[in-house]
Every structure is written in C-alpha cells, then in structure tokens.
Design goal:
elongated, alpha+beta, RraB-like_sf, single chain, 115 residues, 4 strands, Alpha-Beta Plaits, RraB_dom, 24% strand, four-stranded antiparallel β-sheet
C-alpha cells in the first residue's frame, strides 16, 4: 500500500489520500484528465489554433450549466498517478497557456476504485 503520510497537505495530496482510501491501484498507469481553464470562454479561433499546435491531443469542452462546469480544454495523459506527476503536469500545462489567460489547477482520474 502507498504511504499516504508522504503526500503534501494540498489539494493534490488530499485527492491522492481519497483515492488510497478507495483502494486505488497506484501501481498501474491510468488515464488522468487535466482541466485547463481560461479567463474568458469561448476561446478565439487563434487561441484554439495555438493550443492545438502545442497540445494536439486537446479537446474543447463547452460549459455545462447544469453541473456549473466552466468551458475548458481537456488533456488526457496516461501515467501512474503520483503527486510529483500531477503537480508537474499542472505546472507544465499552466506554463503553456499562461500567455493566453489559461491555467491548470485541477485533474481527475477515471478508473474504478476498489473491488
């Protein structure tokens, strides 16, 4: 079992502790969804072109008013789920889009937990 006490006391560490409580398999690679949000939505065609040239796997997700979710760019990366990886990937994505008003500070993993 993963030692949960080593995770920092931040939002990412909290998410990892929740996953550990649900018997998440940290030894296997999973599809991790990173949500890149922007100061203004919808994005212009120029912004979309710039993002797609750097992140060709990007998907554009329109706002979902029912769930109160903002429009965002979705990036899916297959990797082991570690604090180091999710923190570094959020920083990397934020650096890529910061010049056009974007930031990444949230993620999710779509995988069954437990048995």
């Amino acid at each position: 079992m993963i030692e949960t006490m080593t995770w920092p006391l931040d939002a990412d560490g909290d998410m990892l502790r929740i996953l550990a409580e649900r018997d998440f398999d940290f030894d296997t690679a999973h599809n991790i969804e990173f949500y890149v949000e922007f100061d203004a939505w919808p994005l212009t065609q120029k912004q979309q072109t710039e993002i797609s040239s750097i992140l060709p796997q990007a998907s554009y997700v329109e706002p979902n008013e029912e769930d109160e979710l903002p429009g965002h760019v979705l990036i899916i990366v297959n990797s082991n789920v570690t604090h180091e990886f999710v923190a570094a990937e959020q920083k990397r994505l934020s650096n890529i889009v910061s010049n056009i008003g974007g930031f990444c500070n949230s993620w999710a993993v779509c995988s069954p937990c437990g048995t």
